[in-house]
Request: fold
Amino acid sequence: MRERFRIGLGAALPAALLLLLGSVEVIAAVLLPAFCHELGHLLALWLLGLHIRSIRMELRGFCIEYYGSCSAVGHALAAAAGPFAGFAWAWAASAIGQRTGLEWLSLSAGVSLLLSLFNLLPALPLDGGRIVLALSCAVLGDRRGERVTEALSLFVGAALLGAGVWLMLRQRGVAVLAAAIWLLLYQENGRGLVKRGEMI
Reply:
C-alpha cells in the first residue's frame, strides 16, 4: 500500500534555501500562501465527494492524487480552488497587514497573488493546465484534449522563456526565466496525470 503522504528528496532543496535565506517572517510569508492554496484544493475535493489517494511534496510542489467519480467541470473546479483560495489569502493578508502594520503579511499577500496568477497559466503541470485539460478532454475527447493541452503548455512555457530571457538581458532579474525553465522541465507528456486517479 502506498504512503498517503510523502516528501520527496527534490523538496529538500527549496526547503533548505528557504530556511537558509529567510527569517521566520519570510518563511511564514511563503508557507502560508502555499498552505492556503493546498487547503483550497482539499476543500474542493471534499465538497465534490472525491477521495485523496496520496499527497506528495516534490521539487515541483505539492501533488495531490485523488480518485472518484466527477464531471469535467468538477475536475476543473478542484484545480481552480487552489488559486482562488490563494486570492482569498492575498486579500485577507493585505487587509490585515495594512491595519496592523505587519510587513510580512503584506509580503505574504504579494507572494500569494503571484503564486495564484502563475498557477492559472494554461500549462501543465499548473492548475490552469489541469483546468484546460479537463474541459478540452470533455469537449474534444481524451486524445485530442491531451494533445491540445500539451501543445498549449509548450507554447506557454516557450513564451515565458522568451519573456524571461528578455527581462534578464535588461537586468530585471531572472525570476521569470527560472519559472519558465521549471515549467518546461515538467512538460514530459502530461507528467503527473493519472487516468484513474487524477492529480492537482
Q: What stands out?
A: Residues 189-197 have pLDDT under 50 and may be disordered. Residues 5-185 form one domain.
